[in-house]
């Protein structure tokens, strides 16, 4: 399928999202990494998704919010340092896009520092900021609200 909404030439762009144990990049942890690398003109796009094994139980609130349980992390989670290396290799030097880039790169850079890695140097783009620019009259710019407004499933 050819979709004219997406560029057919140019450099890859990586869209990513994290689920976390809370809102503080300093005190909370990433529990899931998900990313898709959009490669212009390609028929399919590389992706990764991985749960992270953490050293503390999830709160019931975070489990309800994310749908991720302690059991899932114990069964399917992998060590953060391994997933970090895979994620950094996956994104390479490509531009990255996140819904709330400051939140996600804050968590990423905190995790990188905790594991002795250098901070992210990629160019980052904030989908939330772009949505606010594109639809300034919307009362709410949460992702679920935008998807409903745009008629997306």
Brief characterization of the structure:
This protein is an alpha/beta fold and 153 residues long. The protein has helices at residues 60-66, 70-76, 80-91, 101-114, 127-134, 143-149, and strands spanning 13-20, 30-38, 47-51, 95-98, 124-126.
The global form is globular
N→C terminal distance: 18 Å
Question: Largest sheet, if any?
Answer: 5 strands, mixed
User: What's the Cα radius of gyration?
Assistant: 16 Å
For the biggest β-sheet, the strand order reads 3-2-1-4-5
- Work out the helix count: 6
> How large is the share of residues in beta strands?
15-25%
Give the SSE order as H and E letters: EEEHHHEHEHH
The amount of helix comes to 25-40%
Number-wise, the strands total 5
Q: Average the pLDDT over all residues and give the rounded result.
A: 93
Unreliably modeled segments = none
């Amino acid at each position: 399928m050819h979709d004219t909404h997406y560029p057919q030439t140019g450099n890859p762009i990586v869209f990513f999202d994290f689920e976390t144990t809370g809102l503080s990049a300093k005190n909370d942890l990433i529990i899931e990494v998900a990313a898709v690398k959009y490669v212009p003109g390609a028929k399919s796009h590389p992706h990764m998704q991985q749960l992270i094994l953490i050293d503390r139980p999830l709160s019931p609130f975070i489990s309800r919010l994310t749908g991720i349980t302690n059991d899932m992390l114990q069964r399917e989670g992998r060590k953060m340092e391994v997933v970090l290396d895979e994620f950094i290799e996956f994104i390479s030097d490509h531009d990255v896009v996140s819904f709330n880039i400051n939140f996600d790169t804050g968590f990423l850079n905190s995790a990188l520092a905790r594991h002795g890695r250098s901070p992210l140097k990629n160019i980052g783009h904030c989908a939330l900021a772009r949505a606010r620019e594109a639809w300034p009259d919307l009362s709410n710019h949460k992702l679920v609200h935008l998807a409903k407004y745009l008629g997306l499933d």
